[in-house]
Amino acid sequence: MDYYKANEKRYDDMIYRRCGRSGIRLPAISLGLWHNFGSVDVFSHFIQIIHTAFDNGITHFDLANNYGPAYGSAEENFGRILEKGLGRYRDELIISTKAGYDMWPGPYGNWGSRKYLMASLDQSLKRMGLDYVDIFYSHRPDPQTPIEETMGALADIVRQGKALYAGISNYDDTQAEAALAALKEHKVKCLIHQPKYSMFERWAEPKLLPLLAGEGVGVIAFSPLAQGLLTNRYLHGIPEDSRAARPTGFLQANQVTEEVIAKVRKLNDVALSRGQTLAEMALAWLLKDDRVTSVLIGASSAEQLKDNLKALRNLDFTPDELNAIDAILK
Ligand SMILES: NC(=O)c1ccc[n+]([C@@H]2O[C@H](COP(=O)([O-])OP(=O)(O)OC[C@H]3O[C@@H](n4cnc5c(N)ncnc54)[C@H](OP(=O)(O)O)[C@@H]3O)[C@@H](O)[C@H]2O)c1
Description:
The protein is an alpha/beta fold and about 325 residues long. About 35% of the residues lie in helices and about 15% in strands. The chain has a single domain, classed as NADP-dependent oxidoreductase domain (TIM Barrel, Alpha-Beta Barrel). The longest helix is centred in the last third of the chain and has 16 residues, at about 260-275.
């Protein structure tokens, strides 16, 4: 493949939203490398997805230490993509990584200790060939480690310049409140929270979103398409090349139930009546709320990504549409 040169019109159509009360604006749609970018996947295929993303104004790429499979391979592959040309745009990119789930054996390769977070970020930087990441996350709260230790490690990482900003993921409102307070003690602000949030997963709505809005912390919603359920992927069974059919996917075939698909069909009808695909509508439905800075999608092809970008053409919903969607989701 020739050395990559980005599309000159890449900033024409993307919407950028301010991330909480910070100086950073994120693209309304960001791309995650949890699935489809590991050593089990095809390099020529996924480099095309990344280039398509950046060519369309997606400046934010989200990783974690253990994305693959194999663990670490998504970061290695992203490093190779940077080396093959994307890296010359480093100052136009927001790259995030995380530590918090199992990564290496023994007591120091999981959860939220200072030891794990510091060592893991050093490994991530090596794998990606970077001097710093833009955002480093505590990937999940650790019930055994004092929050002051986990947040103290994040604050020191920011001070060392190995990450420009700190983030948290999978913290509920009580855990998030404690984390934000602990970071404040270190005079480091939490830039962003990364919760699971989609039409099918609304736990963040009652307490977490108001808390984050009040604290000026941005929100990036992960698995906004419920891993593909909120698209037309499973309307007619489970395709062979889909996440639910793959042995390495986190969506299990037994989660694709008749009950779920009955809802998906009804949502699909609402989407069609709006002139959107279901994927577009599912993303627009999250982005109608300006507390949501960005939706963090996955994609197994450049075509899916391009379809999802069309969501930005219509982020408005009539009260009737919202009521119809709520009635289906009940
Ligand atoms: N913080 C955390 O704990 C955490 C956890 C999970 C994810 N994340 C982040 O969130 C990112 C996204 O998660 P996700 O991959 O579950 O997101 P998602 O956007 O909900 O699902 C992505 C999958 O949906 C399908 N899809 C996407 N666009 C489609 C379209 N237009 N038409 C049909 N199918 C489409 C594809 O499935 P097929 O592969 O079947 O084609 C794709 O792989 C991850 O990469 C990661 O960065 C974070």
